[in-house]
Amino acid sequence: MAHARFWSWAVLLAWPLAGWAAEPVANRAKALSGSEVSARIDKLILDKLAESKIPASSRATDAEYLRRVYLDLAGRIPTAEEAKAFLDSNESDKRAKLVDSLLAGKDHARHLADIWQGLLLSRNSDSRRVQRQPFTDWITEQFEKNRPYNEIVRAIVTADGPQDKNPATTFWLTQVTVDRMTDTIGKVFMGSQIQCAQCHNHPFTGWKQEEYWGMAAFVMKVAARPPGNKQTESPVVKETPKVVKGRKNLPESVKFVDAKFFGGDKPKVKEAQPLRPVLADWLCATDNPYLAKATVNRLWAQMFGRGLVHPVDNINDTNPASHPELLDELTVQFQAGGFDLRAMLRSMALSETYQRSSKPVPGNEDALAESYARMPIKVLTAEQLFDSIVTVLGAPEVPAAARRRAQMNNQNPNPNGPRQQFLALFEGDPDADATEYLAGIPQVLSLMNSPRMNTPGAAVRLTQGLGNSEAIDKLYLATLSRPANAEEKERALKVVRASDKPRLALGDVLWALMNSTAFASNY
Question: Helix axis angle, 62-74 relative to 106-120, nearest 10°?
Fold first, then answer.
């Protein structure tokens, strides 16, 4: 009965993207427990499946769930030892314990940092000299502390001072121009492509050009100069007392209007007053319709391969959510729960919807991904792929000289090392669908011919002291997070038995597994 009462007003107070709720919704909402949020997810997904007469796939096996949740929450596959411990456990709550362990781990914070720095730090010629690692380290620390997400956003939006004292300023140093600043705030923090109204009124959404420049006015006084050729001091971000109309970071389409919240009111501010704190107060408020909705939609995409609104940064009335009631309720719960990223991810990870197998059953073979009748198969991101390879093979060696120099200067020993080189080669379109495989021949050949992939040392190390049959199981555990099935084992054993050096032949088995579609997929 309590759920019914909660749901009735939550639906009635669902926000249009063009305005504010009349009364702070989060202040009126009761925060549900994590299990209650999981149950709401499952009910609303199943209700729509029933309405569409689409059957749901069965529950994922422990091995499928293990590998999936490691990749989605920790950004890597489990080690063979981690996989065996989980699969051998008979505890009824082992999935919940695993999720809690992953969310509390350093790998989770680093994985979120990979995602968010990719969203927030612009890659362009103007910012090519900006050091991004300070921001990555800073935001990783915020995620490790599980700092409320709206507080993290506030720290970024209001960041000023030298970069070496305040790494959050890196956001502004990579945006440089006023339109990039405004566009990124719109896409990442509001889930909206507000740049479509930069040069003219939007033809479909009703967004006006004046609304775009009203938002841009909040950042018009930001002076963020990235490092240049002769600059030796740390770059500084500051807000000037007034708008300098001749500044180089203004686009040709610029319009000078009063600062105005997007779809909202004009704040009462004085000309010399810093405007970014005013923007942050509005954006990070517990009753703001944008930040929470954009964030839960992005978290859902992280876990399920696509947002409830897809694409994730195109939330507007002409692009409705696949499950609007669910998106509204998750938004309310995220606000009521204090913008707790871990709590929201936990509820998603322990829902039966997330625990569903990716294998179809009769009747849902052709179901669209947005039905969530089964788990979509996602392609590993470049970061996930590299970190999973490292999980199997170990970290690449850093030259001794580089280590010594780094220790003397208290620096990262390999800031542009193997991981960065790998990401540069495998980096795809940031707006691509998570289910779309973007790698081509250069990337595949790079993996197949990699010296690290073609040495038997890792296979020998992983299988030391094991018989051939046990060794093959161990290699499957290390790469696919499960033992080999009977057919796979027999095929691998034939390869090993046919070799005059069986231990080295295990390296061929490992090579085949790590170059397989299964290894490159999150299913």
Answer: 50
